[in-house]
Specification:
The structure is a single chain. By secondary structure, the chain is of the alpha+beta class. A 5-stranded mixed β-sheet has the order 2-3-1-4-5, with helices on both faces. The chain is elongated and about 95 Å long. The C terminus is likely disordered. It catalyses: 2 GTP = 3',3'-c-di-GMP + 2 diphosphate. InterPro entries: Diguanylate_Cyclase, GGDEF_dom, Nucleotide_cyclase, Rev_trsase/Diguanyl_cyclase. Keywords: Membrane, Transmembrane, Transmembrane helix. It comes from Ensifer adhaerens (Sinorhizobium morelense).
């Protein structure tokens, strides 16, 4: 009996640790409700260890045995609900409640059946198998496919299989003639030991997917310009460079650089709050006008960039003119009634093999020409006939 009770105590402590860990995750993650349900799941399931420890010493073993069954199952139902929220595959809570109540009723119905038989063991373990398989289906049905998600999926599948294995282990090892005999049976040692390993593995996997989400969100925030909502220079560059992969017969795409005209005058005349509103409005114009596959970023100050994949120079020029006209028509709060903010644009079609930095330099020259020629214009850069490979040394004076 002492070994099984010790393992029950270990499982209780482990569950409390995971409860605390998910509460910490809830404070940091955007999936706060999911983490709170997972914390609640471990907390409720941990009560089973308390109830099972009491069973051998109480005059009401049925009450505490059923309570142990119900607490574990309720904890698993809460975990299923939390995983559903996290993976955007929500559970119907009425269905979960109905499943829980039906399972507890089943446990009550089989309580007096002979223990250690295949019939009792199968009916007792069936609800646990179902809820774990149900949880595994959540991960399978979601669109998330990172390594952490796969690990969690297979651990949930393994856990559901573990409850099928317990059916045969209960018969082969013996689970005691009564509920009070359980903690002193060989099956209790096997069940609690394997259960502890699966609790730790699955709990760590669940924590892993939620911690990964926090890390991914932090990385994404580091690439977003908070004022405009567009990518910052780093985020823009990291997303555009992989899109330089050529499609056969087509140029990689076209780059548009844009700069708000006389933006310093806006800040000086109307204040930085109005200037910020101008930045936000121009970012909205870019997103509204650019094609779906395009990438937009704020490079700094009042300078913006848009990459149009698999788009030629003439198509990009039309898009830039649309952006220019849309910005010119904006009525922005904080400006005088008749005041309008305009923007200038430089457009450069990217040559095959041309690095991003070189294309940006050509687009910047076209943007400078638009500024010099009166602002509120679109100017296009010439496509270079030969692109120098920056990885090959070029020697001055060598023919």
């Amino acid at each position: 009996m002492g070994g099984a009770i010790s393992l029950l105590a270990v499982n209780f402590i482990i569950a409390q640790i995971f409860t605390a860990a998910f509460l910490v995750i809830a404070a940091k993650s955007r999936s706060r409700r999911a983490a709170l349900y997972c914390a609640g799941g471990f907390a409720v399931a941990s009560l089973a260890a308390v109830f099972e420890t009491i069973v051998p010493f109480t005059s009401f073993p049925r009450l505490f045995a059923i309570s142990a069954f119900a607490s574990v199952l309720a904890g698993f139902c809460l975990l299923r609900f939390g995983l559903g929220l996290f993976y955007r595959v929500p559970a119907n809570w009425q269905m979960l409640v109905a499943f829980f109540l039906a399972s507890v009723a089943l446990d009550l119905a089989i309580y007096d059946l002979p223990r250690g038989t295949l019939q009792h063991a199968a009916l007792y373990q069936l609800p646990f198998f179902v809820i774990q398989a149900w949880s595994a289906s959540v991960v399978m049905r979601s669109e998330r496919r990172s390594a952490a998600d796969w690990i969690l999926l297979w651990l949930l599948v393994l856990t559901s299989g573990y409850y099928l294995l317990k059916v045969y282990a209960a018969v082969a090892a013996g689970s005691g003639a009564t509920a009070q005999d359980y903690v002193s049976s060989p099956f209790a040692l096997i069940s609690q030991a394997l259960g502890a390993m699966l609790i730790v593995s699955t709990g760590l996997a669940m924590l892993g997917v939620m911690v990964k989400e926090i890390v991914d969100d932090a990385h994404a925030r580091s690439e977003i310009d908070l004022l405009s909502g567009l990518y910052n220079r780093r985020g823009f560059t990291e997303r555009v460079i992989p899109m330089f992969q050529l499609r056969e017969g087509r140029l990689p795409g076209t780059l548009i650089l844009a700069d708000l005209d006389r933006f310093k005058l806006v800040n000086d005349s109307y204040g930085h709050h109005t200037g910020d509103e101008v930045i936000r409005r121009f970012a909205r114009v870019l997103k509204d006008v650019m094609p779906n596959r395009a990438v937009a970023g704020r490079l700094g100050g009042e300078e913006f960039a848009v990459f149009l994949p698999s788009t030629d120079l003439e198509e990009a020029r039309v898009v830039a003119h649309g952006m220019r006209a849309a910005m010119m028509s904006q009525r922005i709060d904080g400006l005088a009634e008749q005041a309008r903010v305009t923007a200038s644009f430089g457009v450069a079609a990217i040559a095959k093999g041309e690095p991003l930095e070189q294309a940006m330099q050509r687009a910047d020259k076209a943007l400078y020409a638009a500024k010099e020629n009166g602002r509120n214009r679109v100017e296009c850069a010439e496509v270079p006939q030969n692109v120098v490979n920056p990885t090959v040394p070029q020697w001055i004076g060598r023919p």
